[in-house]
């Protein structure tokens, strides 16, 4: 018990230093102002009540904020899971979302207790970048429809195919054109905000963009759709026994695995990025995975959105001067106060403005600057990235990520299976074939092509002493080739290994 208390207490020890409490208090306000529009926007884009995004943000602050793992990163609803949540709600219904998130949290807790946190760091960076790029593309495509006040198609291909019709509808309808203009204006503010003077940039860009769009909409009485407000208590829908019983279906379990993989990977990659931004305590990845699992289990019980650690809010926390977890805890408290005291304020926010925020967030998920250098230096990695992203757009999140992981494993196996064949002819007509490197089944076609091209009426020696790895399939195939290659009457092929020279007749 004492060790647990010391673990919880140690990240808060800098609070004894003068000025740290004030720094954390101010940082919490900055994170709250960044988180507010993103929590609401992610919820609306996910097809759930806006209040559920705030619930997840509150849990990320008031629950995960107290838990050990990463002291400064902030958790809440993330744009990276928007597409997957939307698909899950469309397929299984809003009632099942809580059950899916609850099981996701339980799996994360189990993985953390089994010390699997560090293994998530072994996921190919190309797969992660491809996953984020695919999410970004689907997010952009879907929110373009929301920004124009139109219903978005279900599949990625349908969204792409419907863009010309969407453009025609926007140009031909005043209401759609007004909403689209408001969304484009929001994006323009987000793009231009970092270039304004530092005194102006004290207000976070997402909050400024949404606030300006809301003011324009209200001031000009624009005919655009706003966020629907239900109230915090009414929005919370804990999963029922029927929802929990339905967790056994294959389709639901596939969604749970996708939630677990993506939420865990995004959280732990975010933790690694946050560690590079400050000089404080490093992240304990297994504890962070348990903390995320407890947070998601809590969100599941409340029927809210899944959570991850979010790099935008985390970087804002570090840049604002936070020193302890107190800043992220307080940001959750501010979200709770807002949801309880000012829920009606959500009802005046235009949906087009939130869609603009998410289109901008989707663009930032696409690693445009890294793609060209990656393609020049590592074509295989660029292919994995592009294939993962395209597969997510064409199929769905889970299948796209699985395909990316399979391609990454195949590429890694191919890269490590380097083998070189050298054929030399000695005096007297004897031929020596030397293999070096890693001889695996992946290289068998090339090896056999060379060996089967050798003359069958000459003495041949197959030298394997320089082979670092020889798998079973390759050894068996080479032995069979040695037994059958030479004509009768010709000296049998000799196989020379590191330990013994063996003759196969």
Automatic annotation (TrEMBL):
Write the record's keywords in alphabetical order, separated by commas.
Membrane, Transmembrane, Transmembrane helix
Q: Where is the SLC26A/SulP transporter domain?
A: 23-387
Pfam families associated with the record: Sulfate_transp
**Where can this protein be found?**
Membrane
Transmembrane regions: 25-45, 52-72, 92-114, 126-145, 174-193, 205-225, 245-269, 332-361, 382-410
Query: What InterPro entries does the record point to?
Result: SLC26A/SulP_dom (IPR011547), SLC26A/SulP_fam (IPR001902), STAS_dom_sf (IPR036513)
Q: How does it sit in the membrane?
A: Multi-pass membrane protein
Please give the name of this protein. SulP family inorganic anion transporter
